[in-house]
Amino acid sequence: MNVNSIVVLKLVLLICWPWLVYSKGEQGRLLVNMTLVRNASALGAYCLDGSLPAYHLHRGFGAGANNWLLQFEGGGWCNDIKSCLDRSKTHRGSTRYMNKLEVFAGILSNNASFNPDFYNWNRVKIRYCDGASFAGDAKFFNGTSLLYFKGQRIWQAILLDLLPKGLGHAKKALLSGCSAGGLATFLHCDNFTSYLPKNASVKCLSDAGFFLDERDIALNHTMRSFYEDLVSLQGVEPNLNQNCTSTLYYPHLCFFPQYVLPYINTPFFILNSAYDVYQFHHILVPPSSDPRRHWDHCRFNVTACNAYQLNILQGFRKNMLAALRVFYQDSRRDGMYINSCFTHCQSETQDTWFAVDSPRIHNKTIAQTVGDWYYSRNVSKEIDCAYPCDTTCHNMI
Ligand SMILES: *[C@@H]1O[C@H](CO)[C@@H](O)[C@H](O)[C@H]1NC(C)=O
Ligand SMILES: *[C@@H]1O[C@H](CO)[C@@H](O)[C@H](O)[C@H]1NC(C)=O
Ligand SMILES: *[C@@H]1O[C@H](CO)[C@@H](O)[C@H](O)[C@H]1NC(C)=O
Ligand SMILES: *[C@@H]1O[C@H](CO)[C@@H](O)[C@H](O)[C@H]1NC(C)=O
Ligand SMILES: *[C@@H]1O[C@H](CO)[C@@H](O)[C@H](O)[C@H]1NC(C)=O
Ligand SMILES: *[C@@H]1O[C@H](CO)[C@@H](O)[C@H](O)[C@H]1NC(C)=O
Ligand SMILES: *[C@@H]1O[C@H](CO)[C@@H](O)[C@H](O)[C@H]1NC(C)=O
Ligand SMILES: *[C@@H]1O[C@H](CO)[C@@H](O)[C@H](O)[C@H]1NC(C)=O
Ligand SMILES: *[C@@H]1O[C@H](CO)[C@@H](O)[C@H](O)[C@H]1NC(C)=O
Ligand SMILES: *[C@@H]1O[C@H](CO)[C@@H](O)[C@H](O)[C@H]1NC(C)=O
Ligand SMILES: *[C@@H]1O[C@H](CO)[C@@H](O)[C@H](O)[C@H]1NC(C)=O
């Protein structure tokens, strides 16, 4: 199937809305320049359209000068030639069309009062232009159209570029990302650790990246077949965790976080809403599953959902918690924050990350909980009560 681009556009607008409001009102916002990775061509690491990959780096200072936060940008996927060709002509598939200045807010902010635990670290935003969560390695050429599926090499090229800039002797490091970038942290977490000093403290955080292997309301495996097409088109399978792919009967399933999670050795934090709006709209109720459009009102306005629809949403939450049960029980080195808001990505926007009215569980903000986990200040595994009990949400719908 194709990602329904109108729905994606709507979602992007919804996601950006609070951010636009915030950044318009915020005078002292931090804008960071783009760095193109010129050496990437030596590795054949190109965006979909053949342009060079890029990141934005804001240097750390003081006590954080040797600490590094790398954040994967998100933005969906493309799983067939047409959707990838379309994407290659936009900022999601080419650095040519990207804004050269990025706003650094939330976990990327350099101000202690907005980002208490990571503000003085070196902070890097890795731009997303491959359409496969930085994990593909293939190429398409049929005589007229050319597409590079080189996400894995982009990840490698950016790491190699950053290592001599100080990442190579980091004392503390955190690999994070949101949405498709949150999924990339599951895929690349242990690989990141392998490049850093053995005595460094290295951890990973996924924001809104815990995409569930769930059937939609028509009982179709919509997301599973979407990922199957993506893994096959972009040559992802050899780059998936080998301990996972050698165990599962369908190796491409290792693109789903829940299957690779048991094989990740680095301390991990999962930040996700149990009613993640992207998953609601693309996994649970994709347009194909609702031809009679019974869900139109509920999809964009949760207070318009009827009892039957709410029941299905509660079932989705239950299944997410079930998929996380072992992770929840297993170890003290991991953390989680599963709240009950109709949202998608909460670490990059100031109002959800750390503000007077930001979301809370047991009165703890996301920034406090992630900080407590990273610095081992406290056990950090928070699960919210079910909708509609949470009154601190910044709901998108
Ligand atoms: C960004 O980089 C360009 C080219 O190096 C430079 O001209 C511009 O002043 C920079 N902008 C900021 C805000 O640093
Ligand atoms: C951090 O933000 C506060 C509140 O907006 C502001 O007063 C302060 O000057 C900022 N600090 C820095 C270092 O930018
Ligand atoms: C190559 O692929 C593109 C996109 O699918 C298609 O429009 C074009 O006709 C193809 N060219 C040839 C020579 O097959
Ligand atoms: C770029 O690649 C060349 C050749 O592989 C290497 O010698 C050089 O150190 C690289 N430069 C950077 C900044 O990574
Ligand atoms: C790791 O070891 C190196 C070399 O012994 C040392 O310079 C560095 O400070 C150590 N880092 C940490 C975080 O202890
Ligand atoms: C990390 O990934 C690169 C390719 O991107 C690979 O060459 C390297 O062997 C990997 N390292 C580990 C420890 O898996
Ligand atoms: C979804 O499942 C129904 C049967 O439950 C089937 O008729 C339909 O073709 C499927 N749709 C898609 C898009 O796979
Ligand atoms: C697979 O598991 C073994 C044993 O736990 C471990 O040594 C190895 O690094 C793992 N490989 C990957 C790719 O995670
Ligand atoms: C959402 O649905 C409720 C209940 O149907 C309705 O009262 C409200 O006006 C709707 N809000 C929007 C923004 O459409
Ligand atoms: C919640 O935490 C804030 C500080 O973050 C504190 O001022 C407030 O009293 C707490 N509320 C409750 C009910 O504990
Ligand atoms: C640790 O977390 C518990 C439960 O959230 C809380 O009651 C306690 O005050 C926290 N301790 C510290 C040192 O923050």
TrEMBL record:
Instruction: Please give the family membership noted in the entry.
Output: Belongs to the pectinacetylesterase family.
Report the PANTHER family cross-referenced here.
NOTUM-RELATED, PECTIN ACETYLESTERASE 9
Q: Where is the signal peptide?
A: 1-23
* Free-text function comment from the UniProt entry: Hydrolyzes acetyl esters in homogalacturonan regions of pectin. In type I primary cell wall, galacturonic acid residues of pectin can be acetylated at the O-2 and O-3 positions. Decreasing the degree of acetylation of pectin gels in vitro alters their physical properties.
- One Pfam family named in its UniProt record: PAE
What keywords is this UniProt entry annotated with?
Cell wall, Cell wall biogenesis/degradation, Hydrolase, Secreted, Signal
From the Swiss-Prot or TrEMBL record, give the protein name.
Pectin acetylesterase
MF (Gene Ontology): pectin acetylesterase activity
Subcellular localization(s) per the UniProt record: Secreted, Cell wall
The UniProt entry's GO biological process terms, in alphabetical order, are:
cell wall organization
Q: What class of enzyme is it?
A: hydrolase
* EC nos: 3.1.1.-
Primary site of residence: secreted
